[in-house]
Amino acid sequence: MAPEAVVVSFRLGGADGVAVEARKWEHALGELGFGVRRVAGAIEDNGRPDDTVLPGLAIEPGPSGAPIDDATVAAALEGADLVIVDNLCSLPLNVDAARSVARVTAEHPGRVLFRHHDLPWQRRHLSHLGTDLPPRIDAAMQATINLRSRRELEARGFANATTVHNFFELDPAPGDRAGTRAHFGFAADDFVILQPSRAIERKNVPGAIRLATYLVRVMPNRNVRLWISGPAEDGYAETLARLVERSEVPVTIGRAASSADAYAACDLVTFPSTWEGFGNPVIESIAARRACIAFPYPVLSEILAAGVRCFSTEQPEVLVRFLAEPESRQQTYFDVNLRRARVSFSLADLPRSIEHAFAAQGWIAW
Predict the structure, then answer these.
(1) Tens of pLDDT along 221-276?
(2) DSSP letters spanning 245-285
């Protein structure tokens, strides 16, 4: 009988970064012979028969505010050979839920892995909350998606820390450029800049608007449009509305039918975030053969250490020179970037990376 893995998170099945990466792990665990089911506060796709939705685990558990019951969580995890807590015990977004899951997993008879996309002290507005997170459970594995976080865990005395960075489908199905542009009202000759992220403070929407405004001034013959996939979260809606109203560049907000459609429809990807646990659009843009200009957030250096390249918002003139180059030279840039990305970031290598992490922990027989 196949061993059973349960992925637990605030929300699964959607388009946010944690949910996207959880899907990749589900597939990889299946390749390793696991049966996988999901437990979450919200499941944003069509759902599966073996899903368990516990509203008390949601980031915002609802108007009742009732704390999640430990017995309910334990029942949802019962029988799991492996429990993967995906970011739920990393950030104090719902402290009651995080503490409940921590208590239950401390007593769980199976193996437990806490997967961290972010950590409390990395978010200024959260650093004073949930000082007992992540939980210190001796037998549990602490898996980060970047080396910086692993080192910070180790410096705080966490044992069993490892890093399994994010991996990507580097040969994605082509998206619908014409149909997506028509849907969002972009003309055939518009120069569309895509910010593929939610609209929250650290995603730095003002930085995207500044870049778009700069490109308008240095490319006067192009009709520049800024497209933010959104939506606004964490109370950012009012701020976003003001930014859009004051922008000199037309701003469109809305999510395409798929990420492939979004990348196909744009002409440039901007990623001005000031902090990211990883920064998926940097690699996704390489797979889509689109130039990406990013703010030098701390973890970006780990991605660039693999030899891939992106442009910097600190030197937008370098991007402008690239955009003026012949198409053949641009295509060579994309070819080289994709070849380098295959060495370190191919989704086909994720099962092996997880397997190595398990072996290092001594998790061999299931």
Answers:
(1) 999 999 999 899 889 999 999 999 999 999 999 999 999 999 999 999 999 999 99
(2) HH-SS-EEE---SSHHHHHHH-SEEEE--S--SS-HHHHHH
Q: Which domains does the chain have, with CATH numbers?
A: 4-167+347-361 (3.40.50.11930), 177-345 (3.40.50.2000)
Q: Please tell me the distance from the alpha carbon of residue 229 to that of residue 80, in angstroms, as a whole number.
A: 36
Going 101 to 39 to 35 to 2, the CA torsion angle's sign is positive
Dist. CA 185–CA 219, nearest whole Å: 21
Residue written as tokens 């990376």? Answer: 353
Amino acid sitting at position 40: A
DSSP 164: -
AA letter at 127:
S
Neighbouring CB atoms inside 10 A of 85's CB total 27
**Could you report the per-residue pLDDT of 104-113, keeping only the tens digit for each?**
999 999 999 9
pTM score above 0.85? yes
**Residue 35, strand partner residues:** 4
Amino acid at 19: A
- How do the residues of the chain divide into helix, strand and coil, expressed in percent and rounded to 5? 40, 20, 40
Strand pairing report for 311-312 and 52-53: unpaired
Under DSSP, the state recorded for 174 is P
